[in-house]
Structures are given as structure tokens and as C-alpha cells.
Amino acid sequence: MPHELYLLRHGETEWNREGRIQGSQDSPLTARGRAQATAQADILAREVPQMWQLARYCSPLRRARDTARIALDGLVPVIDRRLREVDFGAWEGLTPAERGARDPQLVAGCAGDLDLCRSAPGGEGLIGLETRLRGFLADLRAPSIIVSHKIVLMVLRGVLTDRPAMEWDRIDVPQGVVFRIGNGRETVLH
Fold this sequence. Notes:
Blueprint: E1 5-9, H1 14-18, H2 31-47, E2 55-58, H3 62-71, E3 78-79, H4 96-102, H5 104-108, H6 113-119, H7 126-139, E4 144-148, H8 150-160, E5 178-182, E6 185-189
Parallel strand pairs: 1-4, 2-3, 2-4
Antiparallel strand pairs: 1-5, 5-6
Protein name: Histidine phosphatase family protein
Pfam family, one: His_Phos_1
């Protein structure tokens, strides 16, 4: 990727706080989530003083759009469906205990978030997600700011930093920070 990218995860939501999988579903930002988006706005103002010159993209899901509205200080992003969170099928809206009760054998085989993505009954799966994200990256033509979701950012960061797919589950995606990626190197901005 020849362009510098700034990646933002949406702020904390009610379902994040409850441990529920959101996937293609949505829940509103919490007060903490709005504060995290404000922190991202401060980071971008410091690190990208001419932010208005960069392309801006956002997932269509409300939690990402609400974060973008705050973090981008009113600049309007292009909504791109390819940046939506992976669909977790039947597990969306469920807590870990509810998933375990519903599908104990499937859940027992999940060591991390990407295993959940691969195993979710009726879900999109990791291959489908990676395919659409590679398509998105292929269309980028300029330095950009991208506001999206945890699993999306795990995959994007893995691809952009050329990490083997087996290591993507170890990629931490905290809220309230900005990930800068350029020339295959990543910096977490606080």
C-alpha cells in the first residue's frame, strides 16, 4: 500500500460493554465510546493537521458513523459497505455464555475472535471478509482515514503489515486510539 492510512475503531457501545457480539447488528455508543471518539479527534488534529485533505471512509453501521462524526470533526466520510463488520450469523447479539449454551461444541473450539468469525453458524466467515477488504484496499488511491470495526481492523492491519494470517488473532484493537500504517509499518497513536 503506497498510501499512508489512519485506522480507527468505533468507540465503546452498549453491547461491547455487555460482551455481546455485534457483527452486522448495532448498538449505540456509550458515554465512554463518545469520549474515545473525542480522543481520536484530538489525535487526528495533532497528527494530521490538514485532515480535510485526506480521503475519509466509514462503515455504514451506526456505531462507526457516530464515531466518525466526532473523530473527523464534522468532515463527512464516504460510506463504504465493504468496511462493515463481519456478519456473525446466529451469534449476533449473544453474550459468551449464551453462545456457549447454544453451540457448546462450536464455541469450545474457538480460541480467539477470528475462530468465532470462522465458526459462527450462518456467518460470513473470514475468507469472505478478507476478500471484500482486499477489494476495498485495491480501490484506495490516496492517503486515507478509515473508521470501522474490530475484526475488520484486525484483518486490514494484518494484510497491510504483511503478517501471516495465523497471527491476526493476536492483533489488539483497542478503542480510542488511531493506527497509522505506512510502508508496511504500523504505529499506534495515543
